[in-house]
From TrEMBL:
GO terms for molecular function: ATP binding; ATP hydrolysis activity; ATPase-coupled transmembrane transporter activity. Its main location: membrane. It comes from Clostridium aminobutyricum. This is ABC transporter ATP-binding protein. GO terms for biological process: cobalt ion transport. It comes from the Bacteria.
Length: 290
């Protein structure tokens, strides 16, 4: 075998998630995934977008082994998913999911017990578990209600505990399914800050969201799902300037880009001016071109 062929057969060390020809059909015959092909790089910030029912949540549950596809392959960090009991424990340590509704994730009597459950199941010594749990609670500012029953927490508190559940396992990949859903602005900002910190720490983050403003600012790449398929993937500017694509997936262009387009059409910004992602960047661009 020549050197080029050998390199082609070796896994790309920069790829964290590789999905080939993924199909998943529910027991009632609903075909949720219909041939997903996707690669996600290590440390990449990926916004997964699309209409409700487009297959996003089903895709996530396939990624960490809760669902097993009828057809296709999933590799995490160069290794195919292992569906043995031991293999699934490792997959769920590496790939953490924070569900849209934390009530579907939290079940222990207290916050401390909740966050401890997963790492104890992995066989870590109790003292080490206690240190890990205390550290995560401190980082997410939930230590003050560590002894509180999870069902007495507010929505924002539950969401942070659900994130702590995942982070204490020290995953390589964190999946957040509509993390700011049903939260007030204060708690939504707190969750955004946590997501930003995850990204800065080098964790690969997949974020399901309908918030185009957030996706524009945050994401390295946007993946659009439609009827169980990847309709398109690309940089935010490639996605948000495709009017037909946005209409098909029921998404709107971010407000800052609408204003940017309007200023160009009115001749107040030159064509080809650097695309802003925030209102502050747009104001600076406008002032500097006057």
């Amino acid at each position: 075998m020549d050197e080029q062929n050998r390199r082609n057969q070796q896994p790309d060390s920069d790829i964290m998630v590789k999905v080939d020809g993924l199909y998943y059909t529910y027991a009632d015959g609903t075909q949720a995934l219909r041939g997903i092909d996707l690669e996600i790089k290590k440390g990449e910030k990926v916004a997964i977008m699309g209409s409700n029912g487009s297959g996003k949540s089903t895709f996530f549950l396939n990624l960490n082994g809760v669902f097993r596809p009828q057809k296709g392959n999933i590799s995490i960090n160069g290794k195919p998913l292992d569906y043995s009991k031991k293999g699934l424990l490792e997959v769920r340590r590496q790939v953490g999911i924070v569900f849209q509704d934390p009530d579907n994730q939290l079940f222990s009597a207290s916050v401390t017990q909740e966050i401890s459950f997963g790492v104890l199941n992995l066989g870590f010594p109790k003292e080490e578990v206690r240190e890990k749990v205390d550290q995560i609670m401190d980082e997410l500012h939930i230590t003050e209600f560590k002894d509180k029953p999870t069902h007495f927490l507010s929505g924002g508190q539950k969401k942070r505990v659900a994130i702590a559940d995942v982070l204490v396992m020290q995953p390589s990949i964190v999946i957040l399914d509509e993390p700011a859903s049903a939260l007030d602005p204060k708690h939504a900002r707190m969750i955004d800050e946590i997501v930003d910190e995850l990204s800065r720490s080098g964790i690969t983050v997949l974020l399901s969201t309908h918030d185009v403003e957030r996706a524009l600012i945050w994401a390295d790449k946007i993946v659009l799902f439609d009827e169980g398929k990847v309709l398109k993937e690309g940089k935010p500017e490639e996605i948000f300037f495709d009017e037909a694509l946005l209409e098909k997936t029921n998404l709107e262009k971010p407000s800052v880009l609408k204003i940017y387009d309007g200023l160009i059409k009115e001749g107040l910004l030159p064509k080809g001016a650097c695309m802003p992602k925030t209102a502050e960047e747009l104001i600076t661009l406008f002032v500097n071109t006057k």
